[in-house]
Design a protein that fits this description.
Layout (H helix, E strand, L loop, with lengths): L6 H14 L2 H16 L9 H25 L1 H5 L8 H4 L6 H21 L2 H22 L6 H5 L1 H14 L6 H24 L1 H7 L4 H5 L1 H18 L10 H23 L3 H29 L1
Helix pairs in contact: 2-3, 2-9, 2-15, 3-6, 3-7, 3-9, 6-7, 7-9, 9-10, 10-13, 10-15, 13-14, 14-15
Length: about 300
């Protein structure tokens, strides 16, 4: 394959679509929906295949929102070093109605499949997750206010609620609500860490991310404050039935994120900001693994 030149182009195409649909984020959002489903006691209303389908639909909806984000932000992406090689900027993909149709069709199929095979309430949350990221965050808020990622962070919370209502239609119990709250609190310190690292990019693009508005030092203190609230809140699900395996994930992940955020607050540099960003990913992963492991331990 490599000698006749086919492997390289194939690999490039896979990378292009992986980046276009932001599938790293999509898979994390899908895992969040799975955790939401498994965290609900009983889990009698949906079979394993329905939960698997829901996770796939959440990933597809997230992918459509990620592609729409890049479609809308082509002008911003062109002014940022981190994003100037995206497909709509370079012309590898044509910025036109065809891709809008593909994106809209992906979302419609994901929502309809969830409504038919799972239930309409879960389908509503699948739609709201994509809508809040694609429209509320990208179109309405991102260019206007530093609160963009705070409100836009609801997108991740809706994935938890989609998972929970897939197994308990029409009901959002305290476990799911507390996990959704944790996801909502997680997004700002996670993303502000990245925004500190890429402060110059956002300033060049004219995007009012918190570090651009108040400076890196104040933004770093906001990351630490947000992380403290997040870590304390991550223990709320224990009051509603989650057990020791979840607690272990919450403790380990909370320690990692708090330590990195404290170092960022003391020294708001690009290096410490990226360490805080990666620690936030580790914390979320440990929380979700804790939910899933706890569900398996409970049988």
């Amino acid at each position: 394959m490599s000698e006749d030149g086919h492997a390289g182009p194939m690999r490039d195409q896979v990378r292009l679509f992986f980046d276009l649909f932001k599938l790293r984020i999509g898979f994390a959002i899908g895992l969040t929906a799975l955790a939401g489903a498994l965290a609900v006691p009983g889990r009698q209303a949906a079979g394993a295949w329905q939960i698997a389908l829901l996770v796939a639909c959440v990933i597809a909806a997230s992918a459509s929102a990620g592609a729409f984000n890049q479609y809308v932000e082509r002008d911003l992406d062109a002014r940022m070093g981190r994003t100037r090689h995206r497909a709509f900027v370079t012309g590898r993909l044509t910025h036109g109605p065809f891709w809008l149709g593909v994106i809209g069709l992906m979302l419609a199929l994901a929502v309809c499949a969830t409504a038919v095979a799972v239930n309409p309430v879960a389908a509503l949350f699948v739609f709201l997750g994509a809508f809040f990221y694609g429209v509320v965050y990208t179109v309405v808020l991102k260019r206007r206010t530093w609160m963009n990622i705070v409100i836009g962070g609801l997108a991740g919370s809706f994935a938890v609620l989609a998972g929970a209502t897939s197994v308990a239609p029409g009901e959002v119990g305290p476990v799911a609500a507390s996990l959704a709250w944790v996801l909502f609190l997680w997004t700002p310190p996670h993303f502000w860490s990245l925004a500190i690292a890429y402060h110059d990019d956002y300033r060049a693009a004219g995007v009012p991310m918190l570090p651009v508005v108040v400076g890196d030092a104040r933004a770093a203190r906001a990351v630490l404050a947000g992380t403290v609230v997040l870590v304390f809140s991550s223990f709320l699900p224990l009051a509603f039935g989650l057990g020791p395996l979840y607690a272990a994930g919450a403790i380990a992940g909370g320690f990692l994120f708090l330590r990195a955020a404290a170092r960022l607050a003391r020294d708001p540099s690009r290096a410490t900001a990226m360490r805080s960003f990666h620690a936030s990913l580790a914390q979320l992963s440990l929380l979700l693994i804790g939910v899933i492991a706890d569900a398996a331990w409970r049988g």
